[in-house]
Design goal:
3% strand, transmembrane, membrane, 77% helix, mainly alpha
């Protein structure tokens, strides 16, 4: 095998697994900059922070692979979490709150999907509008104030997000299980293959008999469902949802996680494992920024740069 063959294989590997290389580089940098990076406390906190955003990002990944975008995920999380706390306080049942959160999230995602597919409105416009609408609803319902978990349910509810199983944070376990489930769906089912087909070439997908509208709608439904789970976990972690701020910036963090994970922002290509590591890498970057004494107000700038660089890199791989 000559040098050119090795170079071709190396390029192919890097094209398919660039997120692994990025993760390794960031891990080395974070370890070198922060002597406490590998401590249990720091890693546990990092995984907890990555999990809630990461679950949302998994849904965002499906929407982006299908060639669209969802800007409403942060507002969906806020609306679902706030109303979920009301359900918990009224019924006293954590289980009913979970069911409610998943159903409401699914409904909000379905609403987005139907507006895109049946209303024939661009996903960017639809989710930009619902981002504002969902946020306005929960702010109005709470009159700008917080939705706080009742004292009698505080400890039993908080332990869901704060607890650990065999020294592994519950949030990390849930994140891994959901990632595994979405990976199976995308790699082992017709639906997963159809999502990639629609994102690669929607017209060709229609000609092969794929119900494109159904596939698109379902990516929004799954995103809403996962946002509902994320909302439940966020409420458990915070125990008080401030309507104007809850979930704020989740859409940017989710998109950044997907981009860092190597998914093509133009659709048709991407790995679930990449988004899983992308969410963790995003928190590693935040960790590095804190250690480097970068002002927190500049975090948005850094995330914006990351997204631009990731998209530029994806364009170079075509």
């Amino acid at each position: 095998m000559n040098i050119e063959d090795y170079k071709t294989k190396l390029q192919k590997f890097y094209s398919n697994y660039s997120y692994l290389v990025s993760f390794a580089v960031l891990f080395i940098i974070a370890t070198a900059i922060n002597p406490r990076f590998l401590t249990y406390t720091n890693l546990s906190t990092l995984l907890k922070q990555a999990a809630i955003i990461g679950i949302v990002a998994l849904g965002m990944n499906l929407v982006i692979i299908a060639g669209m975008i969802d800007l409403s995920v942060g507002s969906m999380v806020a609306l679902t979490a706030g109303l979920g706390v009301l359900v918990l306080n009224h019924t006293g049942s954590i289980f009913l709150m979970l069911i409610f959160s998943m159903i409401l999230g699914t409904f909000l995602g379905l609403f987005n999907g139907l507006l895109v597919t049946k209303g024939r409105i661009a996903a960017f416009i639809v989710t930009l509008a619902t981002m504002s609408a969902y946020r306005s609803i929960i702010v109005q319902l709470g009159q700008g104030g917080p939705f706080s978990v009742a004292r009698e349910k505080f400890d039993s509810f908080r332990i869901i997000a704060a607890g650990e199983t065999f020294l592994i944070p519950n949030l990390a376990i849930i994140f891994v299980l959901i990632t595994a489930a979405i990976t199976i769906v995308m790699n082992q089912t017709k639906f997963g293959r159809y999502v990639y087909a629609v994102g690669s070439n929607e017209h060709a997908a229609k000609l092969t008999g794929i119900n494109v509208d159904f596939i698109k709608t379902m990516t929004f439904v799954i995103t809403g469902f996962l946002s509902g789970i994320s909302a439940f976990l966020l409420a458990s972690r915070l125990t008080s949802i401030t309507a104007p701020n809850a979930g704020m910036g989740f859409e940017l963090d989710a998109i950044a996680s997907v981009a860092i994970g190597g998914t093509a922002m133009s659709g048709g290509r991407g790995k679930i494992a990449g988004t899983f590591l992308g969410a963790i890498m995003l928190q590693m970057i935040n960790n590095i920024l804190v250690i480097a004494n970068i002002p927190p107000f500049l975090e948005g700038l850094v995330k914006g740069i990351i997204i631009i660089l990731a998209v530029l890199f994806q364009s170079k791989k075509k």
